[in-house]
Specification:
Elements lengths: L2 H11 L6 H12 L6 E3 L2 H13 L4 E7 L5 H4 L1 H13 L3 E7 L6 H10 L4 E6 L8 E4 L3 E5 L16 E4 L3 H20 L2
Parallel strand pairs: 2-3, 3-4
Antiparallel strand pairs: 1-7, 2-5, 5-6, 6-7
Helix pairs in contact: 1-3, 3-5
């Protein structure tokens, strides 16, 4: 299935579109508080797991993402908006770095307008080397993608693979520290 088709299905049916056996596997990982990664072998799994992460987030989100044609922020706008409402209430933040040659996603601009620039902060960056995209939430949950080419709407959904940790503070904190280092560095550049 193509990325555009997966986005359409998830918008229509949400997590019900995800295979029940996969959802059961994720539930087992969650109930066991497993520190091991959940395999995320396609874009549909990624939407589902990001959705779960956002539903469980109350303090902060750090995202290092590309500027491809993916509309995942729009697809997950309900769960990320609810997370941002909780985050704002606690004086937390969402910080996002978008790497690539594209434009800042409209969805992040809309979130910043809705929740304010003290809650939603973002910046654009360029790199000569591919970087590993990730999302870290509340110092415990992490989605760490394999390096991939820029996303297009026509790309096959199984082109996007990741490891998702729903309870691994050590690994998540390491990536949060890496993000903060990059964020601070980019803030010193003119």
């Amino acid at each position: 299935m193509k990325i555009i088709e997966v986005e359409r299905l998830y918008l229509e049916k949400g997590y019900n579109q995800v295979d029940p056996d996969y959802r059961a596997l994720v539930d087992i990982f969650r109930k066991l508080n497993a520190k091991e990664p959940i395999p995320n072998s396609d874009y549909l799994h990624g939407l589902y797991l990001n959705d779960l992460m956002f539903r469980g987030t109350s303090h902060h989100i750090r995202m290092l993402n590309g500027t491809g044609e993916s509309n995942w922020l729009d697809v997950l706008k309900d769960s990320i908006s609810k997370a941002l409402a909780r985050i704002k209430e606690r004086n937390g933040f969402l910080k996002a770095i978008f790497v690539g040659g594209g434009e800042t996603p409209d969805a992040i601009r809309k979130l910043q307008q809705k929740f304010g620039d003290q809650t939603v902060k973002f910046m654009m960056a360029r790199t000569s080397e591919p970087v590993r995209h990730f999302i870290a939430c509340d110092s415990s949950m992490l989605r760490l993608e394999d390096v991939h080419r820029p996303i297009t709407q026509e790309m096959m959904s199984n082109s996007i693979k990741a490891s998702v940790y729903l309870n691994n503070p050590g690994k998540t904190k390491t990536m949060e520290d890496e993000f903060d280092y990059i964020w601070d560095y980019l803030n010193t550049q003119d």
